[in-house]
Automatic annotation (TrEMBL):
Keyword DNA-binding: no
Biological role: Specifically methylates the adenine in position 1618 of 23S rRNA.
Gene: rlmF
Pfam families in the cross-refs: Methyltransf_10 (PF05971)
Listed name of the protein: Ribosomal RNA large subunit methyltransferase F
Region (Disordered): 1-21
GO cellular component: cytoplasm
Organism field: Hymenobacter aquaticus
Keywords for the protein's UniProt record, in alphabetical order: Cytoplasm, Methyltransferase, rRNA processing, S-adenosyl-L-methionine, Transferase
Length: 326
């Protein structure tokens, strides 16, 4: 029988996940040593306090991300086209670590690691951030899907340019911008996790209005890159609620192909409709996990159609005792 959604968001402590590498302020001196190109963007703040970068400058944010990826994740070559989403890496890492906790629970304690664990990143983007972090931290293999041919091409270039990612990340073009899993997941293909950072807004006009509000709050006329992105990264007809409804519906058709499905949710108002759809489609367990980075609070929803006995059978088949990389 389906269970009621299990909401742990209120119980989560403020701050990043304990295993997240990005606690505290950025150590710009260490980052510059790893990536000297960042030095051109580091300067004292207006208050004359600690050094920082101008987060409204796309070049500065890209240089910071390049430095973080070199310093913490050993990625030497990383670049994205102008106008594409430059994600805040600490928050992206949190999502990966909380999903690892879900697998650990299924595994009776330790996080399953190595190439036996396969993850589908829906909407991998040109930045390929989730696969980079997940592979480095846990050795997982990833499939990243995206409906944007440019994003697919750039993500493939990132993988090809870094030998440490070879054989660990496959990037696939989603042939239909309306579909989630259909057209990407192959017959009888198994994934231990799926993850997604869905478009928030219902239209391009709504996305542009949100950008204007955020930049007004920053007191600048610039478009902050962390608020930017291509249209498909920011909006979907019907918004987050429609996108996640479709994801839930399609996940039911893949119920035996995946252990845990998941998505980030930016709007609390999206949750009731998603819960209703998952209950209707027979999800056996639904989790809502709160995450916090500074003033930003977000949440992820994860669900499975497998009951406890089926999850144990999955564990025995997918992660038998043995070397983690076997």
């Amino acid at each position: 029988m389906p269970t009621q959604p299990h909401d742990t968001s209120a119980a989560e402590k403020a701050g990043l996940h304990p295993r997240n590498r990005h606690h505290g302020r950025y150590d710009f001196a260490a980052l510059v040593r790893s990536s000297p190109a960042l030095a051109a963007f580091v300067a004292p703040t207006a208050q004359g306090a600690e050094a920082s970068v101008d987060f409204t400058d796309p070049a500065a944010v890209k240089a910071l991300n390049q430095a973080l990826l070199k310093h913490f994740y050993h990625v030497q070559l990383w670049d994205i086209p102008a106008g594409y989403l430059a994600p805040p890496i600490p928050g992206r890492a949190d999502y990966v670590h909380y999903l690892a906790d879900l697998l650990a629970e299924t595994n009776g304690g330790p996080v399953p690691t190595g190439k036996r664990v396969r993850v589908l990143d829906v909407g991998v983007g040109a930045n390929c951030i989730y696969p980079i972090i997940g592979h480095h931290e846990y050795g997982w293999r990833f499939v990243g899907s995206d409906a944007d041919p440019v994003a697919v091409r750039v993500a493939k270039q990132i993988v090809a340019g870094n030998p440490g990612l070879a054989g660990a990340i496959e990037v696939r073009l989603q042939p239909s911008s309306a579909d989630i899993f259909s057209g990407v997941v192959k017959a009888n293909e198994l994934f231990d996790l799926t993850m997604c950072n869905p478009p928030f807004h219902a239209s391009q006009a709504e996305a542009e209005a949100a950008n204007r509000r955020k930049n007004q709050n920053l007191g600048t006329g610039k478009v902050a890159p962390n608020f930017g992105g291509q249209s498909h990264e920011l909006w979907y007809e019907g918004g987050e609620a429609t996108f996640t409804w479709r994801m839930a519906e399609e996940s039911a058709l893949q119920r035996h192909n995946c252990l845990w499905f998941s998505t980030l949710i930016s709007k609390k108002e999206t949750l009731p409709g998603l819960y209703k759809t998952l209950q209707k489609r027979g999800a056996a367990d639904v989790r809502t996990i709160g995450m916090s980075q500074g003033q930003k609070v977000s949440r992820l929803v994860a669900w499975t159609f497998l009951d406890a006995e089926q999850r144990e059978q999955w564990r025995q088949k997918r992660w038998p005792a043995g070397p983690a990389g076997a």
